[in-house]
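pasting CDP-2,3-bis-(O-geranylgeranyl)-sn-glycerol synthase for the record, 190 residues
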Amino acid sequence: MILFILSCLYFFLPAYIANMAPPLMRRTGLFKFLYKSIDAGRQFRGTPIFGDHKTWLGIISSLITGTMVVGLQFWLYQFPFFKEVSFLNYYQINILFFGVTISLGMIFGDLLFSFIKRRANLKPGTPFIPFDQINYVIGVCLVLSPFWLFDKDFSKIDLGVWLALLFLTLFLHIVINRIGYELGLHKAKW
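structre below
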């Protein structure tokens, strides 16, 4: 059971790191020219499409960090421990494609639920539990579904993995955000 949990977390590590990249990058103060909202202030039925907090900095930093983590996983795959906890054979998959795809899945889930929150007239930062915590798991699951359903290289990733990731991510998200809130790094407790 512990190996399964470690394997789930290790598989999803690129998405976890990609999800943390935007607020961390914003705090650096670098690349201010990318602080522009991706919806450019446009609205859909009278409300912002995503909101001004979804920026190009977030998109780009998520893509880069998620892809870099997959590159690190590729390198770590040479070591027996990482081979044992890996659902994927990193030597058999296209690392760049997988890194970009898992990162895009994370971004898709985040944007999808941001869009839904705006339609429900919920402001950024308003609790939307549990979707604020698991939106990117749903996004990655949907974007990777052609692979985990039909590609033999992804045969170890099944519905059980996705269900475990939903529960693990919900728990971890709440714990990590609470710690970040207490440290003054995060505005919301959830």
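The first helix runs from residue 2 to 28.
The two ends are 27 Å apart (CA to CA).
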